[in-house]
From TrEMBL:
Protein name: Glutathione peroxidase
GO MF: glutathione peroxidase activity
GO BP: response to oxidative stress
Domain of life of the organism encoding this protein: Eukaryota
Lineage, highest ranks first: Eukaryota, Metazoa, Ecdysozoa, Arthropoda, Crustacea
Keywords, ordered alphabetically: Oxidoreductase, Peroxidase
Family statement: Belongs to the glutathione peroxidase family.
Protein species of origin: Scylla paramamosain (Mud crab)
Keyword Plastid found: no
Any Pfam family hit: GSHPx
Entry keyword annotation includes Oxidoreductase: yes
Length: 137
């Protein structure tokens, strides 16, 4: 995601860590999360050039209202859940975020535009971002 943040003007990536998928984000504080990103996943001294918020829940009875809003506008990228025994929330819903690094593209006016699978590479989103930046200019 750094490559998009670093090469596109008038564009901002907002990251919301979540521990509901395989308990892959155990850090409770922002500092713990940043150390995990730097040294564990992806590791190798990685420093995000985008804004990272505190950990939130994106699904289930305690999901953050932002994700309720985003999911209401953009259908899920998958029909099935990858590995239900490694999902740490309930209840499961059809429009749930399926795993870490699922992405939402939002217009400047705040309208959800598109939802991308966790496996979608950042560069595969560039054309959609460029389209929106031209529309919203």
């Amino acid at each position: 995601m750094n490559v998009l943040q670093d090469t596109l003007q008038d564009f901002e990536i907002l990251a919301f860590p979540c521990n509901q998928f395989g308990m892959q984000e155990p850090g409770a504080s922002g500092e713990e999360i940043m150390k995990g990103v730097e040294f564990v996943r992806p590791g190798g001294g990685f420093q995000p050039s985008f804004t990272m918020f505190s950990r939130v829940e994106v699904n289930g009875k305690n999901e953050h209202p932002l994700f309720t809003f985003l999911k209401d506008f953009c259908p899920s990228t998958r029909e099935t859940f990858a590995d239900e025994k490694h999902l740490y929330y309930s209840p499961l819903k059809n429009n749930d975020v399926r795993w870490n690094w699922e992405k939402f593209l939002v217009t400047r006016s705040g309208k959800p535009y598109m939802r991308y699978d966790p496996t979608t590479k950042p560069e595969d989103i560039r054309n959609d971002i460029m389209f929106l930046l031209q529309q919203d200019a």
